[in-house]
Specification:
heterodimer, B: mainly alpha, Leucine-rich Repeat Variant, elongated
Chain lengths: 290, 206
């Protein structure tokens, strides 16, 4: 949160310290994302851009637009520019660690050898997340051979789904993978392009799903873990609420939802219980839920 | 090992498409199975006439997941009638329900505003505080004049303080004279002057 000592100058800001603090408090209340003083330049620049693009005369005008616009369109634009996301292999991998060390062992506790474990990546974008989940499980979960692990991956965008199924990635996308993992799971195509091996591509179940559509969502049930990272933040309050309730329906009792690091379920729904595994907080449907 | 679900397995976990039968859905709202009640609430959220049935079920529903589904359906239906039904729950002793209703009312600003104005005249100061708290989170420019009216007229300092919080965020310079008048009206309550000064500074932006 901006501190009262924050100074402004003509070169770096259109916001006074009080305006900055007022904005940060509002943004935090709505999204759970906290900007500290170090983010001042980042925030100021983006607000200045939005003030200009919306034709607002000053921050006060712009804030009134954000605060009262019935459609919420400008709010959504602002969230988009404040939360630039990039996808790559093993992004936020502490959640995969929580998956193999905490969630999966707990979920399979009473299951027998050969039973199904179902994990869903939504949205999967160009595939980095579901493939990362698959690789992480194969490499780090000792019991991965004991269960039939289904990895479902969905997105609303058919173009990114096609790219995900093709499984070709650039150097930048796989930079966090060790040479060993690259050799094991990728085929080099030259020109800094790498394709996921066929076995892995064929083991992920890709589908076009609109997560706010209940008829689409009814296709999925008995899911053990849903990775839904950095998606809900782009929804309006109603869509966010309905999506989470539909995901609740898809989950098996005791199942988990993993959100992005800046997202918090407490602002959306009280249906889930927060659980801490290592450094990450995930959200669990009560094991006794009907 | 990684396996891909077969078409047969996938079909088994897909629900068949069902036609909407209003009377059956209303009956399902009282089903013993929570999952059936949730599904019914979700489907009824697409039928305008379902409002009173959903409100009626909300009054007796104790399962949080079904309650959430009912409230989401009511938000989807949003109407003055739905708001009137929900407002009654602000007097509930169930804190969870009350808070959930507050959030739901904030999701329908256009429809909620007239009822909230009325609640600001309620004889119970707790109800007026709830009304102000809902107004504070309302995405509607009409909330500012309501809050100004509160600080000008309400006799209860805690109701006024709740309104000051909202004005600090959403108020404009026109709220500053009424804020100053509030500080004078409660001159014997030290924290009022402090809160008014903070809100005024925030509104001015410096």
């Amino acid at each position: 949160m901006g501190s009262p000592s924050r100074q402004t100058s003509a070169s770096d800001s259109s916001l006074t310290p009080d305006e900055y603090q007022k904005f940060c408090e509002f943004f935090y209340r709505k999204t759970g994302i906290l900007f500290n003083d170090k983010k001042g330049y980042f925030v100021d620049r983006r607000i200045a851009e939005r003030i200009e693009k919306t034709g607002s005369e000053c921050f006060r005008d712009y804030f009134a637009l954000l605060r009262f616009q019935a459609s919420g369109a400008e709010w959504q634009e602002l969230v988009n520019v404040m939360t630039v996301n990039e996808t790559y292999f093993l992004r936020e991998d502490y959640q995969f660690e929580a998956l193999v060390r905490g969630m999966l062992p707990e979920l399979v506790g009473k299951r027998g050898i050969g039973d199904t474990v179902r994990i869903w990546s939504a949205p999967c974008s160009t595939g980095e997340e579901p493939y990362s989940i698959a690789i992480y499980i194969l490499e780090n979960w000792k019991r991965s051979d004991d269960f039939a692990i289904e990895i479902l991956a969905s997105d609303i965008d058919s173009k990114v789904l096609a790219a995900a199924q093709l499984g070709i990635f650039g150097e930048r996308s796989i930079q966090r993978l060790s040479p060993t993992l690259r050799r094991k799971y990728f085929t080099s195509l030259g020109d800094d392009r790498f394709q996921i091996i066929r076995e892995l591509r064929e083991s992920i179940d890709f589908a076009r799903i609109n997560v706010v559509d209940k008829s689409h969502m009814s296709r999925y049930s008995k899911i053990d873990v849903i990775f839904c990272r950095n998606l809900l933040i782009y929804f309006d309050d109603m869509s966010r609420r309905e999506t989470v309730e539909l995901m609740y329906e898809c989950l098996t009792p005791g199942g988990f939802i993993c959100l992005g690091h800046s997202e918090s379920m407490s602002r959306i729904s009280s249906l889930f219980v927060p659980r801490k595994f290592g450094d990450t907080i995930v959200y669990q449907k009560a094991p006794t839920a009907n | 090992m990684l396996v891909k679900p077969t078409a047969r397995q996938r079909a088994a976990c897909e629900s068949p498409a069902e036609t909407i039968d209003f009377d059956r859905l209303v009956r399902d709202l009282d089903d013993g199975e929570c999952v059936v009640r949730r599904r019914a609430a979700r489907d009824l959220g697409e039928i305008a006439a379902a409002g009173p049935h959903l409100v009626g079920r909300l009054a007796i529903e104790t399962e949080p997941s079904a309650r959430a589904a009912i409230l989401s359906a009511l938000i989807r239906l949003r109407s003055v009638e739905v708001v009137d039904g929900l407002v009654a729950f602000l007097r509930s002793e169930d804190v969870g329900l009350r808070n959930a209703v507050i959030e739901a009312l904030q999701e329908m600003p256009e429809e909620a505003l007239p009822s909230l104005r009325l609640l600001l005249t309620d004889s119970d100061s707790d109800v007026r505080i709830f009304a102000v708290n809902i107004l504070n989170g309302l995405c509607h420019p009409g909330m500012v004049p309501c809050l100004v009216e509160v600080i000008a007229t309400d006799s209860h300092v805690n109701v006024c303080m709740a309104a000051v919080d909202g004005l600090a965020e959403a108020g404009d310079v026109e709220a500053i004279p009424p804020l100053a008048a509030l500080a004078r009206r409660f001159a014997d309550v030290p924290f009022v002057a402090f809160a008014v000064a903070a809100a005024t500074r925030r509104i001015r932006g410096h």
